[in-house]
Amino acid sequence: MNIKRVALIALLAAATTVSVFASGQRSGAASRVLKVGATPVPHAELLNLVKSDLTAAGIDLQVLEFTDYVTPNTALIAGDLDANFFQHIPYLGSNQDWVNALVSAFGVHVEPLGLYSSKVKAVTELADGAAIAIPNDPTNEGRALLLLQSNGLISLSADAGLTATPRDIRSNPKNFTFRELEAAQLPRALGDVDAAIINGNYALEAGLNPVQDSFILEGADSPYVNIVVVRKGFEQDPRIQALATALRSQKVKDYINAHWEGSVVAIF
Fold first, then answer.
1. Could you tell me the CA-to-CA distances from 27 to 24, 84, 163, 183 in Å, in that order?
2. How far apart are CA 152 and CA 165, in angstroms?
3. If we measure between CA atoms, which residue out of 174, 209, 179 comes closest to residue 192?
4. What is the pTM of this model?
5. How far apart are CA 106 and CA 119, in angstroms?
6. What is the pLDDT of residue 6?
7. Distances (CA, A) of 214 to 61, 67, 87, 88, 204
8. Percent of the chain with pLDDT strictly greater than 70
């Protein structure tokens, strides 16, 4: 064989090897990035707490913050995220597109829903006809009404369930009126209503302490556990498993207990 031809083949083979190796490096690096969408408090705060743990495991955890309850699922389905951390199972189950594409990977904590007011100091002070703001998304609205029912303020139809709305109210002794608002708007609406039922994360974000500032608060046995959600088939992804180990660690439990004192409750 011609010596020049042999040299050319060797050169091409070496170039191919370098190209494949470089490509493999790029692919490997990309596969170690983990993009997780989250609402700011406590979800993004907890994720940022464990970033160094993921770094030690060779994973670049990138936390993208959202301020609504719809976009994180849309972005996850579209592949713009690898996971999200902001919702509970009843909320995930409220949209068939989400049910078809997404699944819970693991649970972390409960954020008890509470009733707050800037106008009165006790639930017994709520006047006849008082206006109460509640979340307008299907599961949190039902959850809010069930909280009022469990405290004897209203009663719902027997078949209302988790998706109850004000139309399902059968008994309303104090003639409360209800304003259905986006969950993120509820803290800002406190001055415009007599009381509001606010999700734990938005209460914390607004500087409210659920244990100290709410009149009524869900118990730690709430079924609304906040979960990390992934696309179906990615539950066993090593990056997700590493995230589960980090978020369900004693370090995180201690942080939750020290910083939120019952306003957020670890389930592990």
1. 5, 23, 44, 39
2. 17
3. 179
4. 0.74
5. 39
6. 38
7. 34, 22, 21, 21, 12
8. 88
Per-residue pLDDT for 15 more than 80?
no
Taking alpha carbons only, the member of 103, 51, 63 closest to residue 242 is 51
Given this chain, do its domains 33-112+223-266 and 114-217 carry the same CATH topology?
A: yes
The CATH number of the domain covering residues in 114-217: 3.40.190.10
Secondary element (H or E) of residue 3: helix 3-31
Nearest to 251 by CA among 239, 266, 238, 229: 266
Domain 33-112+223-266 = CATH 3.40.190.10: yes
Beta bridge partners of 104: 229
Q: Is the pLDDT of residue 20 over 60?
A: no
Express each pLDDT in 131-185 by its tens digit. 999 999 988 999 999 999 999 999 999 999 888 999 999 999 999 999 999 999 9
